[in-house]
Amino acid sequence: MNSLGFLHQAPTRRESERKRHSTTVTVESQTTSASTVENRVHHKRANLFHVIISLDRAVAPRVPSLALHHYSISNSNEIHPFSILPLSLFFLVQSYSHFLCVFFFFGTFFMALSKISTSHTPSQTLKPNFYSKPCVPLQCYDARRSGVSFEQHRKLRISCSVAPNQVQAPVAPAVPSDTTSNRDCYGVFCTTYDLKADEKTKSWKSLIKIAVSGAAGMISNHLLFKLASGEVFGPDQPIALQLLGSERSLQALEGVAMELEDSLYPLLREVSIGINPYEVFQDCEWALLIGAKPRGPGMERAGLLDINGQIFAEQGKALNAVASRNVKVIVVGNPCNTNALICLKNAPNIPAKNFHALTRLDENRAKCQLALKAGVFYDKVSNMTIWGNHSTTQVPDFLNAKINGIPVKEVIKDTKWLETEFTERVQKRGGVLIQKWGRSSAASTAVSIVDAIRSLVTPTPEGDWFSTGVYTNGNPYGIAEDIVFSMPCRSKGDGDYELAKDVIIDDFLRERIKKSEAELLAEKRCVAHLTGEGNAFCDLPEDTMLPGEQ
Ligand SMILES: NC(=O)C1=CN([C@@H]2O[C@H](COP(=O)(O)OP(=O)(O)OC[C@H]3O[C@@H](n4cnc5c(N)ncnc54)[C@H](OP(=O)(O)O)[C@@H]3O)[C@@H](O)[C@H]2O)C=CC1
Ligand SMILES: O=C([O-])CC(=O)C(=O)O
User: Which keywords does the record carry (predicted)?
Assistant: First the structure.
């Protein structure tokens, strides 16, 4: 991701937005539903301005300077009415229409008086809340809907591909009665076609909302198209994609949304983009949290934990506030286990069991290595557990894994290979890939996210299980409580899971599991300030690394 590119484009974007705001500010003044006394005062004045602007539009062709005046009025909340008094005097002298100009003169005069009469109060300066900020109508609409603080909404930027000149000026954005409204949407998804009527003609399930963070990143670039195609949730499951980006990636996100549009997926019913998690996570039933800062050269792991932890603490709070009460959360952004822990701790109203850290990629890598060694196809490998952290301490479990239903150790007799080469290959696969490819695994990660979701929405085959990082409370394996640890799970296909039984743990496996557990407990101490457990204390093991770090 070339963040420099985004920075470079930012001023151009701001410039175009400034111009767009200047054309719509009259609409804002009219539609502002000010609740405070001072806002009401301002609101009245804004209406008077509107009358005057309408009047002087009528004569503007004859007085070119008026065009300038429109611009300054529309760009400021604080133009003093006296500033246009000379102009109205000018009309009084010049104009052919006495009625018009007398009206114009007195309108201006009374406005000036109203300004004086209120000038002693602080109400003259509108606080820079969301409503007073220049915004396109869609933004105003979105802020009203979710009922979160103005401060949060100042960051909001849901975009729509309707060009500014297509936005019909004074349209008061109505407060929707129905949250399935598709107005906060992108491109063709902004059209007003009757989605519900359309869906009645199809034997589809009801629409589900899927939020994806880091949506302009590499993993998402593969994942989103898989989600939209129906291969994840099924061919009868329409979906809405709610994509979270940042100031940095907003323009790229628009590009992603355009590509989704152009793909004409029938099951993709809505796409919305934004940079405010409180907006983007609204009512989502799945949250795929991919966006995270990569660990740069010289950055301590503790620093990475802190920076990314803050992202996941905020996103946990947002999920807690606005997501579906039974949202399933899959944390991909690294360090994913501890990020998932931070996220769930900040979302106390969502069951801790609903949070996952993605270790499915590690499971797939392990299956691949075992299949290659045994000379069988991948699908013959089952019961593959990854224990622990998504890091180089993870434990690919060859004790419980099976090939063609037979324990791996009976098929691959080379125990030394299993204990050393196999284990290390899986632990460090991400790093080797980065060395060759120059970037971290994106396509295979996207595939593994698909696998992880499908494992939760389809029943697990009899006798098999899958790996996912989940909350350890109540686990039967003796793993420390209150961390997110990868363990073997089974699902009935309802989105929920149970920990697998019939798992053997020998001394070798136990010792490895303990090492990964110790690492996660140290990570947890290091983010105590983000989980509400007091002061952080970082004593991370020296060799703690992500799979991609070497
Ligand atoms: N668990 C697993 O198995 C795997 C996990 N990963 C992890 O997934 C994550 C995403 O990988 P990938 O898509 O390849 O990465 P990219 O760099 O392509 O995209 C990641 C996104 O993260 C966001 N981001 C970057 N820096 C910051 C920051 N400082 N603050 C907030 N957000 C930021 C950016 O989105 P925006 O600007 O919109 O915020 C960016 O688009 C990484 O953390 C990676 O380590 C990768 C492979 C496997
Ligand atoms: O370290 C990274 O960013 C990549 C990663 O997690 C992996 O490949 O497993």
Answer: Chloroplast, Disulfide bond, NADP, Oxidoreductase, Plastid, Transit peptide
